[in-house]
Structures are given as C-alpha cells and as structure tokens.
Amino acid sequence: MYFPKLSLALVACIAVASAAAGQEIPAAAVQKIAQERPREAEAAARAFIMLVAPDRVEGSRSLDSLKAWSLDQYWMEVAQLTVQFEMVQNLNRRDTVRAQFVARMFGLEAYARELQRAYRFANEAQRAAFRTQLETLIGGHFDIENQLRVLEIKDIERRLAEVRAETQRRIEKRAELVKWSVDGIIRDATRPQ
C-alpha cells in the first residue's frame, strides 16, 4: 500500500536537494530495503513512527500485526518508513521548519496506509468510519502541503527581491563596474610575463 500521490509535496520540496546529494530515488530505496530486509530498517521504522505519531501507540502495534499478516507487506511498510525517516533527517539538516511539516505529512501517510489495510477487512459500518477518518487525514495532509507551498512562495519572493536589488545596484553602478573591469583587463595585459 504505497501512496505515491501523498508524497508529491515531499518530492517537490526535496527532489533537488536529494539529487544534489547523490541520494537514491526514494522509490528505488524503498524497493532495495524491502528486498534486502536489513534489521536496522525495522528499528528505524519504529523510531520514525514514534517520532511522527507519538500519541499513536497503535502505529507500532500495526507494524506487528502487519508482520504476522504479510511479511512482504510488512517489509514494504518498513522500507517506506525507513526511507521517509532518512529524508526527514536530511531535510532537518537544512531546514528544521520544513522537516517538521514533512514529518507530520509522513505520519499522516503512515496512518492512512494503516487505515487502508484495515478497510480491506472491515464491514460496511467500519468502512464508513474509516472513510471519514481518511477524509480527515487527507484533508490535514493537504493543509500541510499548502503550508509548505506558502513557505516556498516566501522563499521565492525573498530570492526574487534579492536578485532585483542586485540588478538595480548593478544598473546604478554600471559605469563604475565597467571601468573596474576594463582596468583589470588592461592591468593583466600589461603585467610582465
């Protein structure tokens, strides 16, 4: 139960940083962990659940029941949580505010996956309740995505203001900057070899 659409905001927020750092694409990393099944991934996944949902003890129990139900699904969930944990840690080094938002989004995604699994075996009354819970979760996820977008807009506006100010400064000092550049070129041309 992978939620590719739920991770779009994260991808938008850290894709450039991940590429610059030479990290694996998250989907490839998830597949690798799910196939190799390293023991440390289980600990990381459980730690991440406690980080993003400390009030939800069921999250850890849900992993245990998932392990008993389907080992393959368990490892896909562990892998997903482990990769998300690493992504939040990397983002936290650069931007703690965004990392907190992303961690909250991932917590909502983990809970949504848990509800998705429960929905499969639920009766009609339970399914209606699960649907309501999912609507609330996805609404919260949407709100966090928008908060991240607002931060991105503010960053873009700040960078744009800096570029405009630098451009204006260069326009105002054009003659002086041209003179310095020409002086430097002439100085280099007349310097003894």
Question: How would you describe the overall organization of this protein?
Answer:
- The chain has 193 residues and is mainly α.
- 86% of the residues lie in helices and 0% in strands.
- The protein has eight helices and no strands.
- The longest helix has 49 residues, at 124-172.
What's the quick description here?
The protein is mainly alpha-helical and 193 residues long. The protein contains eight helices and no strands.
Q: Which assembly state applies to the chains in this document?
A: single chain
**Number of strand elements:** 0
Mean pLDDT: 84
Largest sheet: none
**Rounded Rg:** 24 Å
| Category by helix and strand content | mainly alpha
Q: What's the tally of helices? A: 8
Beta fraction of the residues? under 5%
Unreliable parts:
1-24
Number of domains: 1
Estimate percent helicity: over 70%
Broad shape: elongated
First-last Cα distance? 69 Å
Feature tags:
disordered N terminus, 193 residues, mainly alpha
Topology diagram in text:
Blueprint: H1 8-21, H2 26-36, H3 39-52, H4 58-69, H5 71-94, H6 96-120, H7 124-172, H8 174-190
Helix pairs in contact: 2-5, 3-5, 4-5, 5-6, 6-7
